[in-house]
Structure formats: C-alpha cells, structure tokens
C-alpha cells in the first residue's frame, strides 16, 4: 500500500500532510506533519496539485480556502471536530447582533461559514498574539473554545467575551491528573495544550508556586519543547497521537500522557488504506462555496501573517 501511495503521489503531483494527532502509520507516510498553523502554511505554499489532508474537516476546508485551484482530499469526510460543532452560524449571528461593535476572533477549529463571519482567525499558537494586536478599547467575541479563551484572557490581561464551547478530548483533562503526575515525577516538564480544562488551575498553580516547568503550548510548540528540554520526563496534556512524533525526535525520553485514553476519534478515522483510496479516486474532495471562501479568506490570512 505504501509503495502504491508513493507511486500515485509522484504520478499525480500530490502531497500528503498530517496533523500531529494522526495515527503513527499515517504520520509516517506524510510529507509534512504539523499543527493547524503549520498545515495551513504548508497548504498556502505547496506547488503540488493535489493535497491529501490527513486531519479533520475544518482543516481541509481551510486548505481549500487558501488554495482553491488545488484538489484537497479528506480521506474520510466524517472526520469532524466536536469543538467546531459547538457553535453554528445562527448562534454566531445572534451573538454578533447583541454585540454589534465587537471584533470576532475565531479559533481555526470552526467551519468555513463561521470563519466567513469572523474578523480574525487564530490557532492555539497565535491566539494570544492576535488578541494583543487588537485595540484595547475594542470589545472581543472569542469562540468557540472556553478554555483557550480563558487562557488568552488571563495572559492578555483583558476582559473578553468567551463562547462556552469545548473539545470532548481536552475537556476531560483534569488538574488532579497533572498534580498527581507532577508529584510522581517532580523532575519533569509539563506541556499543556490550552484547550485543556485543567488550564486555569494549572496556570494558578504554576504562578503561585513559581513553577517554571509548566508550559501552555500548541501541538507543534509542545513537540519543540519536549525535544529541546533538558528534562527526561515530559508530562503531556493533549491528544496522545502527538507522542509518536515526540518519540521519533527524542527516543531516549520518557513521555507521560496525563490520560492514556485521550484520543480524538475523528483524527483516528484516517487510515493508510483510506489515504490510498483517496489518491486513487481523487476523492472525497473538500470544496468551500466561493462566496463563503472569499469572506473567510481575510480572517485566515490574518492568522497566517500574524503567525
Ligand atoms: P493545534 O492548533 O495545536 O494543532 O491544535 C489543533 C487541535 O485540534 C487541538 O485539539
Ligand atoms: Fe477537534 Fe478536539 Fe479532535 Fe482537536 S482533539 S480535532 S479540538 S475534537
């Protein structure tokens, strides 16, 4: 299957990109593995005509908005995102109506329709930078992740309106799990994705105890920190798929997931077999209607340029 995939890729001028949460076998056949921001940047710069997007639906939509002339294939159209589902277009329109002067900042984990109604798009790696770039006197509507929103609000030290959405995987990660592992491995580095429910308490704890080994990072920044840190024990608070790349880059280290069952069923829907099938059939393709894509583009471009 892998040989066939390589042949088809060459013959069709295609590339395969994969998110850090993909199953190991899929990460291993990808030309590029990264976080949401990295994948968007890759989509914007690639010369390939076909991109097989091993991730979830909103990520493939973002790639399609950035390069409408390319064929963006999502090997399983059911690969969605519980966080992106936590707000719909009517709810956003209603929220905007109640706050007509507010600036809308949407996390990249949203549908193209939501992005089209947003002023800025952000990822976990640049959400803080984007909020900090907005005039202090402007009201902000931040959506859909309440934990990322709370993190940004605290770090930027300004009040923002936060949508009460969450990701089912990260919402299940508790501060107790971190605290217990920190006690078991006092000499460790703790890497937390800002979508985690444990974020506020972990931030409070790290400030109170002047604990410099607790970090809030996007998936790619977690990988960089894990591999560059002098610590051998790395506590990882995010989807466990990320540990594959960490282990490949730093095989001698001990990566400890705070929750071994923290897996995103949507990310895991993509398999090597489905990638091969997508390349053979050049389907299923993700396309965003041009009028929505045109409106969403400006918010996505700001996300990439502020990157
Ligand atoms: P990153 O932007 O850090 O890749 O995270 C995306 C995501 O879906 C986290 O659950
Ligand atoms: Fe969405 Fe959560 Fe899966 Fe990330 S881990 S893709 S936020 S459901």
Rounded average pLDDT? 95
Structural domain count: 3
Which fold does the CATH topology of the largest domain refer to?
Rossmann fold
What would you call the shape? Answer: globular
Order of helices and strands: HEHEHEHEHEHEHEHEHEHEHEHEHH
| CATH 2nd-level architecture of the largest domain | 3-Layer(aba) Sandwich
Ligand inventory reads: 1,3-dihydroxyacetonephosphate, iron/sulfur cluster
Sheet with the most strands: spatial strand order: 2-1-3-4
Major beta-sheet overview: 4 strands, parallel
Distance between the termini: 36 Å
Low-confidence stretches are: none
Strand content range? 15-25%
- Computed CA radius of gyration, to the nearest angstrom: 19 Å
Helix content: 40-55%
Class based on secondary structure composition and strand pairing? alpha/beta
Q: Helical region count?
A: 14
CATH superfamily of the largest domain: NadA-like
Classified by CATH, the class of the largest domain is: Alpha Beta
Task: Describe the protein's topology.
Layout: H1 2-12, E1 14-19, H2 24-29, E2 32-34, H3 36-45, E3 50-54, H4 57-66, E4 71-73, H5 89-98, E5 103-107, H6 112-116, E6 120-122, H7 127-132, E7 140-143, H8 146-156, E8 161-162, H9 175-184, E9 188-192, H10 199-208, E10 214-216, H11 219-228, E11 233-237, H12 242-249, E12 254-257, H13 272-281, H14 290-306
Parallel strand pairs: 1-2, 1-3, 3-4, 5-6, 5-7, 7-8, 9-10, 9-11, 11-12
Helix pairs in contact: 1-13, 3-4, 4-14, 11-12
The structure holds 1,3-dihydroxyacetonephosphate and iron/sulfur cluster.
1,3-dihydroxyacetonephosphate (13P) is lined by residues 35-36, 109, 123-124, 167, 195, 218-219.
